[in-house]
């Protein structure tokens, strides 16, 4: 029988177990793929732990790549054997997974299976942050937290391709080297990072902070901004930011804060195709390089979650069925 990861209840990584399951059957508008790679993301840990409520038993996973093995009714434009990926699937920690045809991204020739699984969520996240949430431009300064993480590395490259000066935060020397390789102009630690940002920018502060760390960096992110600066808080790797006094934005210099999520920037087929095409084309052309930090077997999904939550990883984590 096919296998998939199941959690019977919310909890730590140890609740993830490899089980025998029935092979899914695609319904109307759906594709069944034989999974070749699965992206591991913080949102998977939020759902597994109960931060984001989901029904249990639960199989995590929204991001995957694979080959189509069955096509449901009312689907056109796809054929058995086509390679596709998605950032909007469900129950993807499995050997077979259902993908809505409308949300399936075609994988270009020359992009390998691991990269195809690694790119969709973090690639399109970096894309919407840098093109739509705050389209930083040449001559501006950006601060990118977790600069050696999967999104951080891609976002740094996209910003540099736009002529933006980029400061990143990292926690180790190894991560610092990865961030510099991605093009970061300045790489700093988390301790007293607002002071370092002010020093680097001549006291002015950065135009924008892209913050996927959350609770541990939020106040420092606000303190790193110029007058009328912009904070894009797109994740909470260190925990969710608690409620705060909006007067803080006034006293900090008429600051702007937003809390975006990828789904709200994939509202149409055209928008999804635009983002995916630009990201995959940049990878194919060598303008965007994906760093895969670790590949785990599907049976070791618990270890991947523990490593990700321990912030001991770099780049993208992949599960391989």
**Which structural class fits the helix and strand makeup?**
alpha/beta
Query: Quick one: overall form?
Result: globular
CATH architecture classification name of the largest domain: Alpha-Beta Complex
What's the total count of β strands? 15
β-strand percent reads: 15-25%
Query: Fraction of residues in helices?
Result: 25-40%
Keywords, separated by commas or semicolons:
alpha/beta, 321 residues, 29% helix, Quinone Oxidoreductase, Chain A, domain 1, Rossmann fold, single chain, 15 strands
Describe the structure.
This protein has helices at residues 42-49, 113-118, 120-133, 150-161, 173-181, 193-200, 218-223, 247-251, 269-285, 301-309; strands spanning 3-6, 17-20, 30-40, 64-71, 83-86, 96-100, 105-106, 141-144, 165-169, 186-188, 206-211, 225-233, 256-258, 292-297, 316-320. The protein is an alpha/beta fold and 321 residues long. It has 2 domains: 3-119 and 290-320, Medium-chain alcohol dehydrogenases, catalytic domain (Quinone Oxidoreductase, Chain A, domain 1); 122-261, NAD(P)-binding Rossmann-like Domain (Rossmann fold). Strands 3, 4, 5, 6, 7, 14 and 15 form a 7-stranded mixed sheet that branches. The chain is globular, with a radius of gyration of 20 Å. The model has no long low-confidence stretch (mean pLDDT 96).
């Amino acid at each position: 029988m096919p296998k998939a990861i199941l959690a019977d209840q919310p909890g730590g990584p140890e609740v993830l177990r490899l089980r025998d399951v029935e092979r899914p059957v695609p319904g109307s508008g759906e594709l069944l793929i034989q999974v070749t790679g699965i992206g591991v993301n913080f949102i998977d840990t939020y759902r597994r732990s109960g931060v984001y409520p989901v029904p249990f038993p639960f199989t995590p996973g929204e991001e995957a790549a694979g080959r189509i093995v069955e096509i449901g009714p009312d689907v056109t434009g796809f054929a058995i054997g086509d390679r596709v990926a998605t950032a909007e699937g469900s129950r993807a920690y499995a050997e077979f997974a259902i993908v809505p045809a409308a949300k399936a991204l075609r994988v270009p020739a020359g992009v390998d299976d691991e990269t195809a699984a690694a790119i969709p969520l973090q690639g399109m996240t970096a894309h919407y942050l840098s093109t739509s949430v705050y389209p930083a431009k040449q001559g501006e300064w950006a601060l990118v937290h977790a600069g050696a993480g999967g999104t951080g590395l891609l976002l740094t490259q996209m910003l540099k391709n736009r002529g933006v000066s980029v400061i990143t935060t990292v926690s180790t020397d190894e991560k610092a080297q990865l961030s510099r390789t991605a093009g970061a102009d300045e790489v700093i630690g988390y301790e007293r990072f607002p002071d370092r940002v002010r020093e680097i920018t001549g006291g002015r502060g950065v135009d924008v902070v892209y913050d996927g760390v959350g609770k541990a960096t939020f106040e420092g992110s606000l303190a790193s901004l110029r007058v009328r600066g912009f904070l894009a808080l797109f994740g909470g790797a260190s925990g969710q930011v608690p409620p705060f006094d909006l007067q803080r934005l006034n006293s900090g210099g008429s600051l702007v804060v937003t809390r975006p999520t990828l789904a709200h920037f994939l509202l149409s087929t055209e928008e999804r195709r635009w983002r995916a095409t630009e990201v995959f084309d940049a990878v194919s052309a060598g303008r965007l390089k994906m760093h895969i930090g670790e590949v785990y077997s599907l049976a070791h999904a618990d270890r991947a979650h523990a490593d990700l939550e321990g912030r001991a990883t770099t780049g993208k984590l992949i599960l391989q069925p």
